[in-house]
Amino acid sequence: MELSDTDKLLVGIVAKGLPIISRPYEEVGRQIGLSEEEVILRLADLCSEGTIKRFGVVVRHHELGYKANAMCVWDIPDDRIEEIAEKFSSYDFVTLCYRRPRRLPDWPYSLFCMIHGKEREAVLEQAAQLVKDCGLEDINRDVLFSGRRFKQRGARYGMAASQ
After folding, report:
1. Percent of the chain beyond pLDDT 90?
2. pLDDT of residue 59
3. 103 and 30 belong to one structural domain
4. Residue 157 lies in a domain
5. What is the SS3 string spanning 21-88?
6. Domain CATH code at residue 73
7. Residue 132: is it exposed, middle or buried by C-beta count within 10 angstroms (0-12/13-18/19+)?
8. What mean pLDDT do residues 41-69 have?
9. pLDDT per residue as tens digits for the range 63-92
């Protein structure tokens, strides 16, 4: 797909992150000669066309006091993954939930969900709640707490990997 010069500028600016101000789209528009409304409509079009696949927020949990972050991994039978994933996703404390292929024999887990918490004990209690509420007492699982934080940022398009 060929983007106009304006669309290239727009995608380049939003890929770096929106300014944290009350009218970020107005500021983006000012930088590239569009109105706030034009920026919002153009981004909506780029999303609906599939040019932009995802447009969202990267939350820096640590700065918000969430220092006990854990990936909960589950060996859910294939015929129950969709059902259990839907149940997990209904909990406010589950921030991500997705399926991944098993890597046997070392990695039997097929369903992953992220729980961000301020204290380890609270995260463990929430994981235990998932077990109890979803009848997963006999399911092989683990709670893997983050030991290191990596730089979080959105995707970068058409830029060198070092940028």
Report:
1. 71
2. 76
3. no
4. no
5. CCCHHHHHHHHHCCCHHHHHHHHHHHHHHCCCCCCCCCCCHHHHCCCEEEEEEECCCHHHHHHHHHHH
6. 3.30.70.3460
7. exposed
8. 87
9. 888 899 999 999 999 999 999 999 999 999
The pLDDT of residue 106 is above 90: yes
CB 139 within 8 A of CB 127: no
Task: Compute the C-alpha angle 86/57/89, nearest 5°.
Answer: 10
State how far the Cα of 24 lies from the Cα of 19, in Å rounded to an integer: 5
C-alpha torsion angle, residues 108, 114, 117, 122 (rounded to 10) = -40
CATH at residue 18: 1.10.10
* Token pair belonging to 136: 């997963």
Which helix (DSSP H) or strand (DSSP E) does residue 142 occupy?
Answer: strand 141-145
pTM, to two decimals: 0.66
Contact 71, 144 (CB under 8 A): yes
Q: What is the mean pLDDT of residues 144-148?
A: 89
d(CA 72, CA 109): 10
d(CA 90, CA 144): 21
Distance, CA of 160 to chain centre: 23
Q: List residues bridging with 115 in a β-sheet.
A: 70, 94
Q: Rounded to whole angstroms, how far apart are CA atoms 67 and 62?
A: 5
